[in-house]
Specification:
The chain has about 240 residues and is of the alpha/beta class. It has a single domain, classed as Rossmann fold. The protein contains 6 helices and 10 strands. It has helices at about 55-60, 85-95, 110-115, 125-130, 150-160, 180-195, and strands at about 10-20, 25-35, 40-45, 70-75, 75, 95, 165-170, 200-205, 215-220, 220-230. It has a 6-stranded mixed beta sheet with strand order 6-7-8-3-9-10, with helices on both faces. Strands 2-1-4-5 form a 4-stranded antiparallel beta sheet, with helices on one face. α3 (about 110-115) packs parallel to α5. The longest helix is centred in the C-terminal third of the chain and has 18 residues, at about 180-195. It starts with 10 loop residues before the first strand and ends in a 12-residue tail after the last strand.
Length: about 240
């Protein structure tokens, strides 16, 4: 694979496969996937529902293990790691942003982010990251008092608070309307640009691919196409 960065990859998946067994039926979610991830890039993984996007993201994030092949993060072989090692990897290196916000309703925006800062070894200030995502005036609001886009920005702040090396985003605009989704993309773009966080975003929305430095197209569990964008669109230019 051709490098898109002068540095070598920080993550490498080779011959990755994932098979789910439902009784006597085998479902091949991933087959022979080779993928390198480079420092600071904004990677979009594009594919229809059932193409294997979430399965791939979960394996990269240490939430799931492959049936075959290898996954490495720097010198860590994730595909051979036990549960304790994967938990440590997730805690120290990975931030997650999901389609659904997963905020605790009884805690304020600030308190939801502080949950992470209490366990992450080198965390940013919860106030600092909430200011970064444009919520300095909403620190003491509960999730029910926030719009959907604001809740997603709290979720992004929570992910960024641990200073992740890798930010993994699973359909982060999937439950949002267009103006709100675009605002969320602006926040992710800003984090990638200003913090240099390797960002991987999976989506079925092909318009978002224009933001990426590189686009991986998944189909039926396989990489069908790799696209490098010579010029990246800003989030403000994205329309769908």
């Amino acid at each position: 694979m051709v490098s898109t960065s002068p540095a070598g990859p920080v993550m490498r998946a080779q011959s990755l496969s994932k098979v789910y067994r439902l009784g006597e039926i085998e479902v091949h979610a991933l087959s022979a996937v080779d993928l390198d991830l480079y420092p600071g890039e904004f990677l979009v993984i594009l594919g229809a529902s059932g193409s294997g996007k979430s399965t791939l993201l979960n394996i990269l994030g240490g939430l799931d293990t492959p049936s075959g092949g290898t996954v490495r993060y720097l010198d860590h072989k994730l595909s051979a790691a036990n549960d304790r090692a994967l938990t440590r990897y997730r805690r120290e290196h990975v931030g997650f942003v999901f389609q659904f916000f997963n905020l605790l309703p009884s805690l304020t925006a600030l308190e939801n982010v502080e949950l992470v800062t209490e366990i992450a070894p080198h965390a940013r200030s919860a106030r600092e990251v909430l200011e970064l995502v444009g919520l300095a005036d909403r620190l003491n609001h509960f999730p029910a008092q926030l719009s959907g886009g604001e809740q997603q920005r709290v979720a992004i702040a929570r992910a960024l608070a641990k200073r992740p090396d890798v930010l993994l985003c699973d359909e982060p605009t999937g439950s949002l309307d267009y103006p709100t989704g675009r605002r969320v993309l602006q926040v992710l773009e800003q984090a990638n640009r200003e913090l240099g966080t390797l960002t991987v975003l999976i989506t079925h929305n092909s318009a978002i691919a224009a933001m990426a430095s590189r686009v991986i197209h998944l189909s039926s569990g396989r990489i069908s196409q790799t696209q490098i964008n010579a010029t990246r669109a800003s989030a403000e230019e994205i329309a769908w």
